[in-house]
Design goal:
Elements lengths: L7 H18 L15 H8 L4 H19 L2 H9 L4 H15 L1 H13 L5 H13 L26 H4 L1 H19 L30 E7 L5 H4 L5 H16 L12 E3 L13 H14 L2 E9 L7 E8 L5 E6 L36 E4 L2 E7 L6 H9 L4 E6 L9 H16 L3 E5 L5 E3 L5 E4 L6 E7 L7 H5 L2 H19 L10
Parallel strand pairs: 1-2, 2-3, 7-8, 8-9
Antiparallel strand pairs: 1-12, 3-4, 4-5, 6-7, 9-10, 10-11
Helix pairs in contact: 1-2, 1-3, 2-9, 3-5, 3-6, 4-5, 6-7, 7-9, 7-16, 13-14
């Protein structure tokens, strides 16, 4: 039995800190995904030697704060560069961000410490991990789940269409607990649970890569938000830019065999367009649709009320004749980006250009494109597995993500965001067409693989092929069932532990 009699608190807190660091290394910018299988082990080792509940919480809080601070370091730059905060104020907001998000892992540690002592440790602790991980989406901000690291792993990735990202997180958590039990020299029977992992090889592989049957043009404008702050976005500059966008959108495409693309997609912009409130803007967009001969999808700002007090961040789909086919208002807004939570709104500016706070949309809109159906979601919405799944459940046969990652600059955020988008394609077995302002513009197949991409920070077009699909995965049909199951399982295991009064629990090392 391993003990930590020497070193005491210093050693246990060092283990917790290393767990946070290893989680950071598992994702971009470092992106060593295999570390996800061992990253939580140091924290679990520390918990196994610490009987005090307060100290258990602090160990998890430390690991979680390091993970969120290290993986989302770019939050500071966004606050400082685009929210016009001074460096100390931006640093304070950033510190508050990762300290609050770190609380989740502190709570996980309170659940995991007692569960780690029973012979059911492997499934129980893994369920607790998933149960806590899923709560991020309802508590201010969500980003990287542990399972996202497995997007390119041939063994774990086929779980995505069944369980969503949560099943991949569960598998990683099982591996971490199993390694912990080995290091603690627990009886072999406690490890029997990992015998279920080889069953992953029996899962059908993700759809093989193949060329699609339909055509799309994704346009990357490359408008840097600094232009807006420096006064470079003049009327003349805007007119010149839109002419170039028109040329890019309507020029002949080599992969289309002389035919117009089925879809033309513009990204989310740092400069808002007002299709429904500006006659010139509306006529220009309608002209683009007619000239391109494609169904045209673009970003616009609309208003919920006639007084224009409540702006909506939206997407519009026009037919090749310029008629409105569908309109959608973003449901999941970016905190501190599209709205500022109270009481921070008293002293923090948003990074967007609207004078009033954006308000969330209410309905999932799926556009009818000829005989096919298209679901378009906007930027940060890609992190919500349940939200994206609703588009497919409502009939979307292809997914479109219009995004603006220019606020992040050349940080790991854009690569993290792309990794998340890949998981959404895998969960729903859909092609995902991703148009961004300055990168990463790409086409993602149902296996989560990139099929062509544009260089970042360059204006250009990506012409490519995709396919529609009406197949519904288990995850699309039943949603976040695995997360709900993990919540119930965690509660059941904790109840069993309490009812047995620790009689079946093993002593802490």
């Amino acid at each position: 039995m391993i003990t930590f009699r020497k070193g005491g608190a210093w050693l246990t807190f060092s283990l917790a800190a290393s767990s946070g660091i290893l989680q950071v290394l598992a994702f971009p910018r470092f992106h060593i995904p295999l570390l996800a299988a061992v990253a939580v082990t140091p924290l679990l080792m520390a918990l196994a030697s610490e009987p005090r509940r307060k100290r258990q919480f602090l160990l998890g809080w430390l690991a979680g704060s390091i993970f969120w601070g290290g993986s989302c370091y770019w939050v500071y730059g966004v606050m400082h560069d685009y929210a016009d905060l001074t460096a100390p104020a931006a640093a304070a907001i950033f510190a508050g961000f990762f300290l609050v998000k770190g609380l989740h892992l502190g709570f996980f540690s309170l659940l995991a410490a007692p569960l780690l002592r029973g012979f059911w440790a492997i499934p129980a602790v893994a369920a607790a991990w998933v149960a806590v991980e899923g709560t991020h989406q309802y508590l201010g901000f969500t980003w990287l789940h542990l399972g996202n690291a497995a997007a390119s792993m041939a063994v774990l990735a086929p779980l995505a269409p069944y369980t969503g990202v949560y099943g991949l997180s569960f598998a990683f958590a099982m591996m971490n607990v199993a390694l912990t039990l080995v290091l603690l020299r627990r009886p072999r029977k406690d490890l029997l649970w990992v015998a279920a992992l080889p069953l992953l090889y029996l899962l059908p592989p993700l759809p093989s890569s193949r060329t699609g049957d339909e055509t799309v043009r994704l346009v990357q404008p490359n408008v840097h938000p600094d232009l807006l702050k420096q006064g470079g976005w003049t009327a003349a500059a805007a007119t010149d830019h839109m002419r170039r966008m028109q040329a890019l959108s309507t020029q002949p495409g080599e992969v289309f065999d002389g035919e117009p693309p089925e879809l033309l997609v513009w990204p989310e912009y740092p400069v808002p367009a007002y299709f429904f409130d500006n006659e010139n803007s509306r006529q220009f967009m309608e002209q683009i649709a007619r000239q391109s001969g494609a169904h045209f999808i673009f970003n616009t700002v609309a208003y919920e009320d006639a007084e224009r007090r409540h702006p909506l961040n939206g997407a519009v789909t026009l037919s090749p004749s310029g008629e409105v086919v569908s309109r959608y208002a973003k449901i999941f807004l970016v905190p501190f980006g599209e709205f500022v939570p109270w009481p921070f709104s008293i002293f923090i500016e948003k990074i967007t250009l609207e004078a009033g706070d954006f308000v969330p949309g209410r309905d999932v809109a799926v556009a009818q494109v000829g005989e096919r159906r298209v679901g378009t979601f906007i930027c940060y919405e890609s992190v919500f597995a349940g939200g994206v799944r609703r588009f497919v459940a409502n009939g979307a046969e292809v997914l479109i993500n219009i995004s603006n990652d220019s606020w992040y600059g050349p940080t790991a955020a854009r690569f993290q965001h792309l990794l998340i988008a890949r998981m959404r394609a895998m969960e729903n077995s859909r092609w995902l067409l991703r148009a961004t302002n300055d990168g990463i513009t790409t086409i993602i197949n149902p296996a989560g693989q990139l099929v062509g991409a544009l260089p970042s920070y360059e204006q250009g077009i990506l012409d490519g092929r995709f396919s529609y699909s009406s197949h519904l995965t288990w995850f699309t049909r039943f949603g976040e069932w695995f997360w709900y199951l993990s919540i119930v399982a965690s509660a059941v295991f904790l109840a069993i532990h309490k009812l047995r009064g620790g009689a079946a629990a093993r002593p802490a090392p």
